[in-house]
């Protein structure tokens, strides 16, 4: 093991069966650079303390902490096992608990909330709309600032009363109340507290032992930093009651890094890969007038499209705390950041992840022959009318058109001469190979579109026929 203090930790989760596959470390020069960025952000933002971690291949590749948890010189130094409040990242745990209910056949995403939790004014929104902040439900409670005052019961929240600001499905409207509702749904479905469900079904299997509803062990106090002076004000800490599913949880860098690994695809069978991918599909767009948008919401997760690269994660803020989690969906590389300040931390997580990826690029996997030779008869040029498309075999899939083109899609074989669209315009659509009398491919029938080897091949049964006089 390296003795360089900046070589980064060698981390293994309790759930590992192959330690060597989880052990990650960064180059010492990379670790020094990331430490410098973290220290710079701590000073620039006047953050009492800040802790961060980088995740790759399901493990914590690098982590560090800067500052004292009380914000004073000589105070207790922060470390990667210091608890901070994660705020709205809590919502991602609630969302996964909801999707597990769906996968178990206990509910449908198109069910109205009223079908499972009757008696509220938010009941007309569907479960999918609540998960994606598209149900039109009001953002905050009607009582005192819920983030700084103890919370009450679900029945008290309903009687306050809370309701909808917009027609369900009309637009994105971020709602903490909506996730209070989803927490109540989870609790009623299981007959126990929402956090007990999260602890039992998510935290325990992922060995996230330092994620709790209230601070335990070494924990940073929530602090506000005066905007015009280097002085501090303690923020209140309490049980948010019915609003807890919107932002109650506390965690550490090491625990939150495990959740980032989960978000990057290492779900340890807690959730299927298909369901996680479904949660990342954009449902509502965070559209601010006059600004270009890059952020959307899937089912409980924020998703970003940055110059064509897709990310998923969530931000978090509560009085005294800011947090961030973001993973690059394709690679699974991710970052987590936690600080005990009400304000001051900018878009630091993505900057830290970019710096890491630039200095520690992934080595491409070696190419090897893995195509299906039985499908070679389908490769080459096809024509949809006068438009030209190229078919290729990529591994076990048939790719028709180029990735990123308007109608470029991949297809998986589902039977003899039967394929099904995996992505792009033709996702879920059937492709059928139609053969001539001699058994050779005549044309492709793709969701009623006819692809022929020559433009409008008159022998290929083109719908609407081909003019008898041909091209002229």
UniProtKB/TrEMBL annotation:
<dbReference type="InterPro" id="IPR001466">
    <property type="entry name" value="Beta-lactam-related"/>
</dbReference>
<dbReference type="GO" id="GO:0016787">
    <property type="term" value="F:hydrolase activity"/>
</dbReference>
<dbReference type="InterPro" id="IPR012338">
    <property type="entry name" value="Beta-lactam/transpept-like"/>
</dbReference>
<protein>
    <submittedName>
        <fullName>Serine hydrolase domain-containing protein</fullName>
    </submittedName>
</protein>
<dbReference type="Pfam" id="PF00144">
    <property type="entry name" value="Beta-lactamase"/>
</dbReference>
<dbReference type="Pfam" id="PF24491">
    <property type="entry name" value="DUF7586"/>
</dbReference>
<dbReference type="InterPro" id="IPR050491">
    <property type="entry name" value="AmpC-like"/>
</dbReference>
<dbReference type="InterPro" id="IPR056008">
    <property type="entry name" value="DUF7586"/>
</dbReference>
<feature type="domain" description="Beta-lactamase-related">
    <location>
        <begin position="40"/>
        <end position="344"/>
    </location>
</feature>
<keyword id="KW-0378">Hydrolase</keyword>
<feature type="domain" description="DUF7586">
    <location>
        <begin position="372"/>
        <end position="453"/>
    </location>
</feature>
<feature type="region of interest" description="Disordered">
    <location>
        <begin position="1"/>
        <end position="22"/>
    </location>
</feature>
């Amino acid at each position: 093991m390296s003795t360089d203090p900046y070589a980064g930790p060698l981390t293994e989760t309790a759930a590992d069966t192959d330690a060597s596959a989880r052990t990650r470390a960064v180059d010492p020069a990379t670790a020094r650079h990331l430490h410098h960025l973290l220290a710079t952000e701590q000073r620039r933002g006047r953050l009492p303390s800040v802790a961060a971690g980088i995740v790759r291949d399901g493990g914590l590749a690098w982590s560090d902490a800067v500052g004292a948890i009380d914000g004073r010189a000589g105070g207790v130094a922060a470390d990667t096992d210091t608890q901070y409040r994660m705020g709205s990242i809590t919502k991602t745990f609630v969302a996964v608990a909801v999707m597990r209910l769906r996968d178990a056949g206990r509910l449908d995403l198109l069910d109205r909330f009223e079908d499972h939790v009757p008696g509220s004014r938010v009941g007309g929104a569907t479960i999918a709309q609540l998960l994606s902040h598209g149900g039109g439900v009001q953002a905050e409670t009607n009582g005192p600032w819920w983030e700084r005052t103890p919370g009450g019961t679900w029945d008290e929240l309903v009687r306050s009363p809370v309701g909808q600001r917009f027609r369900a499905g009309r637009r994105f409207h971020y709602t903490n109340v909506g996730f209070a509702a989803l927490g109540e749904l989870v609790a009623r479905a299981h007959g126990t507290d929402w956090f007990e469900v999260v602890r039992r079904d998510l935290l325990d299997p992922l060995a996230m032992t330092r994620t709790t509803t209230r601070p335990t062990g070494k924990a940073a106090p929530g602090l506000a930093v005066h905007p015009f002076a280097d002085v501090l004000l303690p923020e209140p800490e309490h049980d948010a009651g019915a609003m807890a599913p919107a932002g109650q949880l506390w965690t550490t860098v090491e625990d939150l890094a495990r959740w980032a690994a989960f978000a990057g695809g290492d779900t340890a069978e807690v959730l299927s890969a298909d369901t996680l991918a479904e949660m990342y599909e954009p449902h509502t767009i965070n559209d601010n007038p006059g600004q270009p948008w890059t952020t959307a919401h899937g089912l409980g997760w924020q998703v970003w499209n940055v110059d064509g690269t897709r990310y998923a994660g969530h931000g978090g803020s509560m009085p005294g705390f800011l947090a961030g989690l973001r993973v690059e969906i394709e690679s699974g590389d991710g970052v987590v950041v936690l600080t005990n300040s009400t304000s001051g931390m900018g878009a630091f997580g993505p900057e830290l992840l970019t710096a890491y990826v630039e200095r520690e690029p992934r080595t491409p996997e070696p190419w090897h022959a893995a195509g299906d030779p039985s499908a070679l008869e389908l490769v080459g040029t096809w024509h949809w009318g006068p438009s030209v498309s190229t078919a290729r075999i990529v591994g076990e899939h048939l790719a028709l058109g180029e990735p990123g083109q308007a109608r470029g899609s991949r297809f998986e074989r589902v039977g003899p001469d039967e394929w099904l669209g995996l992505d792009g315009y033709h996702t879920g659509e059937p492709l059928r190979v139609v053969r001539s009398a001699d058994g050779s491919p005549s044309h492709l029938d793709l969701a009623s579109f006819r692809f022929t080897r020559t433009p409008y091949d008159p022998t290929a049964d083109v719908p609407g026929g081909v003019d008898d006089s041909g091209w002229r």
